[in-house]
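This entry is set out below.
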Amino acid sequence: MAEIAREEAGDHQEVEALYDLCFAPGREALSSYRLREGVAPQAELCLVARGRAGEAAGAIRTWPVRVGGHAALLLGPVAVHPVRQGEGLGALLIFEVLERARAGRHPRMMLVGDAPYYGRFGFARLDGVIMPPPTNPERVLGIALEDGAWDGIRGEVSPEAD
């Protein structure tokens, strides 16, 4: 299917080109991108799926954030090249990131996305977790990577200080 490896510095331009191909122009204006500005991604949780010819068939990144002062991970973006969509690469990347995050003892992860899609990975709506506007609160989802990790966690999502 594809070989999944950690994204390395030399992959950056190819991964950015994949994101540009998969997402609408102006993607960097979204609220989740404001949380990423000037913050290094969680490097061990940024992955690239490569096809047989070595091309970037998919990619996923993860970012450190704070929710009401508590550490969390922000998942995304995740993208799969249009010619490879429908093969399960996106799901494979998400499952791999979740497994690696648990192994790294990260307690909680969140994202902005569609509950019907991300629910199959264990993500559910986070009540009381406030993303920068304009974000639909129905799309703010999270998963506890450790039992009870979201219990009592409320507040605004802010960038992790570098």
User: Anything to note?
Assistant: The beta strands are 3-6, 47-50, 56-67, 70-80, 108-112, 124-125, 129-130, 140-144, 155-159. The first strand starts at residue 3 and ends at 6. The chain is about 20% helix and 30% strand. The CA atoms of residues 130 and 156 lie 5 Å apart.
